[in-house]
Amino acid sequence: MESVGVGLLGLGTVGTAVARRLIGEWELLGERAGATPVLRCIAVRDVARSRGIDLKNARLVGDPHAVLADPAVAIVVEAMGGTDPATALIESALRAGKTVVTANKAVIAASGPHLSALAAEHGAHLYFEASVGAGLPIVGLLRGSLLGDRITALDCVINGTTNVILTQMRGAGVSFERALEDAQRRGFAEADPSLDIDGWDAVHKLVILAWLALGGYLPPEQVDRVGIRDVAGNDVAALAELGYRVRLLAHAERAGNGAIHLRVRPTAVGTGHLLHDVDDADNAVIISSDLAGTVMLRGLGAGGASTASAVVSDLVTAIRERGLPSTVNAAMPREPILLGDEDVEVAGYVHVRLSTEADARALVLQALEDRGLPVDAAVDLSGSELIVLTGMAPRAVHDRALETLDTLTSVDQILGALDRVEA
Ligand code: NAP
Ligand code: HSE
Fold it and tell me: Could you report the per-residue pLDDT of 104-117, keeping only the tens digit for each?
């Protein structure tokens, strides 16, 4: 059978799982692809370090450009991470007419439309299924099965590390730090875990999904983003008592006038909501569209094996599609109009410690109503603490109401505030 040379940039969590699959299942993959993918050359930073894997005849090199320059390499798999030098390497490979498969959401979120156009210009192909949700075939779904639909919204849990942390914080006595260490040990966290914790990784993935699903590309810096650094264990526990689970929810929507809104924020998810039970490193994407209705994908969204599933699938597809004319990977973006804070409706959760002032509780609830923020429920906790579940209202109304609470003498301290979604 004919063979196709593969070059690999990176032999970490993802690269190692990909190499194992290519080497261990070359016969099966060859049958499926119509030609056998053969690993020729692999770039790492530290060539001297023992890797615990038999790489057969593949060369290990310290310079990623050597992989691109290898004439035996027709397909480059990028699994090194970061935007620099990964973006430039992908550009070079595409300019040389080599097909690229990448797991790098930071690169695709920042430069997806540009790289996609570059691939088409040079008769190359660009695949990035692994960049969102690891083994969840969400990119394929959006680029294929749902092409006849108008998608109106996406609601997702798309960061495994933060979901592991929030899940473990709900359990007995596991600290944020211990839970993060667990996610790192299991190969879920980014090399720089602040990308996970501060919500950037979820933003990158949401930008990619919105680009494919809503046809509007929004640079990551323009996404409404709040990470989980300030989510208090007390709030996670108090919400659990009320039937809620805290998730780093990624939401994108397109309004009737075509304006779009993307946000990533810690959110209390109510019982019965499809994302309520998505615990640990599971990811889930709920797609709302006009013809198919509600479609949901769920599964392990991080880790070497799950990510290798997507990378190797792209690789097989790439071999099958060799010689086909390259097309842009998604509708080219139109300059999106953004929904403003007066137009984005959310519900909320506010946790305050009341002062000793007489009627403090009633004054707080009255102040919220006065600012136009409905109160769905109020729950008293010990130690003069009060939880208020605030109803649907524009984001701007919530923000103004919180500013007001901060000035009230009946409030000793605002202890926490989160978005909230119900089934
Ligand atoms: P990782 O374990 O840190 O591995 C990175 C690999 O790239 C290492 O082998 C490293 O070499 C190599 N590398 C980095 N910079 C290099 C350079 N300048 N020159 C040569 N080699 C270089 O990272 P990972 O978890 O596998 O993630 C890789 C990519 O996949 C990232 O874009 C990540 O966002 C994405 N991804 C990860 C997951 C996951 O669950 N881990 C899931 C989906 C997507 P050394 O080994 O010598 O240090
Ligand atoms: N750091 C990412 C996560 C890896 O935790 O979800 C998968 O993309």
Answer: 999 999 999 999 99
Handedness of CA 264, 265, 271, 276 (dihedral sign): positive
In contact, 146 and 289? CB cutoff 8 Å = yes
Distance 120 CA to ligand 2 centre (A): 28
Q: Of 54-58, 162-166, 170-174, 198-202, which range is least confident?
A: 170-174
In terms of Cβ atoms closer than 10 Å to its own Cβ (0-12, 13-18, 19+), residue 388 is buried
- pTM (2 decimals)? 0.97
Fold (CATH) for 345-421: Alpha-Beta Plaits (3.30.70)
- Looking at the chain, the domain(s) classified CATH 3.30.70.260 span 345-421
Q: At residue 132, does pLDDT exceed 80?
A: yes
Question: pLDDT tens-digit profile of 355-390?
Answer: 999 999 999 999 999 999 999 999 999 999 999 999
Measure the CA–CA gap between 223 and 148, rounded to whole angstroms.
27
Contact 29, 312 (CB under 8 A): yes
For the stretch 4-31, pLDDT in tens is 999 999 999 999 999 999 999 999 999 9
The continuous run of DSSP H or E covering 278 comes out as none
Span(s) in the chain for CATH 3.40.50.720 = 3-134+305-320
Q: How far is the CA of 45 from the centre of ligand 1 (A)?
A: 10
Residue 15 CA: nearest ligand 1 atom is: 26
Pocket flag, ligand 2, residue 182 (CB < 6 Å) = no
Ligand 2 probe mutation, 108, 167, 201, 249, most atoms within 8 A of CB:
201
Q: For 57-84, how does the pLDDT look when each residue is reduced to its tens digit (9 = 90+)?
A: 999 999 999 999 999 999 999 999 999 9
Q: Would you say 394 and 345 are in contact if contact means Cβ atoms under 8 Å apart? A: yes
Catalytic residue among 56, 98, 105, 205: 205
Which fold does the domain 140-300 belong to in CATH? Dihydrodipicolinate Reductase; domain 2 (3.30.360)
Residue nearest to atom 8 of ligand 2 (CA): 302
Q: What is the pLDDT of residues 285-329, one digit of tens each?
A: 999 999 999 999 999 999 999 999 999 999 999 999 998 887 655
- Tell me, using a 6 A CB cutoff, whether residue 301 lines ligand 2: yes
- 3-134+305-320: CATH topology: Rossmann fold (3.40.50)
Q: Per-residue pLDDT for 352 more than 80?
A: yes
98 is catalytic: no
Residue span(s) of the chain under CATH 3.30.360.10 come to 140-300
- Token output for 163: 């979901």
Count other Cβ atoms within 10 Å, centred on residue 165: 31
Find the 62 Cα to ligand 1 centroid distance in Å: 14
Is the CB of 354 within 6 Å of ligand 2?
no
